[in-house]
Amino acid sequence: MKSILTFSGLNTFRCCPRKYELRYLQGLTTREKPETLTFGSAIHEALQQWYTLPNDAKRLGTVLDYLDAQFPGRKGDLQVKGQWQRARALFCGYAHRYAQEEFEVVAIEREFEAEIRNPDTGRASQTFTVAGKVDGIVRVGKELYLLEHKTAATLDGSYLDKLWTDTQIALYSYYLRQIGFPIVGVIYNVLLKTRLQQRAGETEAEYEARVQVLAAKNKSGKSNAKRELPETDEEFEARLAEWYSRPEAFHREQIYLSQDRLAMLQDEIWEISQQFLDARRRGKWLLNTAHCFAWSRPCEYLAYCQSGFNPNVRDNLFISKPPHEELSLASKSSETAF
Ligand code: SF4
Questions:
Q1: What is the pTM of this model?
Q2: Whose CA is nearest to atom 7 of ligand 1?
Q3: Which whole-number Å values give the CA distances from 130 to 14, 279, 282, in the listed order?
Q4: 15, 25, 292, 307: which to mutate for ligand 1, most atoms within 8 A of CB?
Q5: Which parts of the chain have pLDDT scores under 70?
Q6: Whose CA is nearest to atom 5 of ligand 1?
Q7: What domains appear along the chain, each with residue ranges and CATH number?
Q8: FRET label pair with 225: which of 43, 188, 198, 338, CA 20 to 30 Å apart?
């Protein structure tokens, strides 16, 4: 039986072979999930539910119930409460904006497995197959597109340019074509994350200080300024709803995939799989320190690498989990480490 190589694994290996070894062979996962990951995952899952219930009149309520369940600590933790309020506002805005879709949903969370082929001979790899899972496949007119959800902090020209470099999704299209889905492009479904925070209001000391400054500027030496009170939940939620009613809160970017680009990517995936095979055979997982601060944040394994792979650091920061949990196909593989 061949081993399954996922795209996220291949991408990780390409960025840093050691990172691949830590994540996929040792299965090390950080104990603490970053806030952005929790929020992004909750929204992603909510979208999947939304699109699996297209004709259900109660689907918004179902999705909001799901979001409620994702933030159980909201009653005792203001930060979690803020995330929950933002998640609900985002989804209500989304549901309103896309009450009528321009596409028809063909599949949601579609898993696939396909051969990796030598581009020169056309022969399938004897060692690996490749597997992945796409958010969705949709039909626009007579053409099929991948639907890919993204939550983003900002949306500008460079963000949109980066979508072109999304190798993984282009490769998904290539392999889905092989198994009978003639994908012509990708629709990126971008949802912006607001940075709005609930206003805490002024403390007595802050209010006094402000009044003194204002009074000093007045000829009368007095000020009628009122103390800013904390924003109520209703006020904050109304402000969030207003933010998510703006057109720029959501964006759809449609990208066509050329045959040339797909052929180039096929070459790449073969080469990476050969490099991977070599690394595995020799047990050499190089550290690519140029990648330690990619995406403007430190790699999750930075402290462990910096410690010289101290087992105490590992045990404090990570738990061990089986790799590729997201793929049920992987569980059928003879070697789940890939
Ligand atoms: S910290 Fe740097 S060297 Fe270590 S796994 Fe991450 S990217 Fe690789």
A1: 0.80
A2: 292
A3: 15, 18, 22
A4: 292
A5: 33-37, 322-338
A6: 19
A7: 3-194+244-332 (3.90.320.10), 204-232 (no CATH)
A8: 198
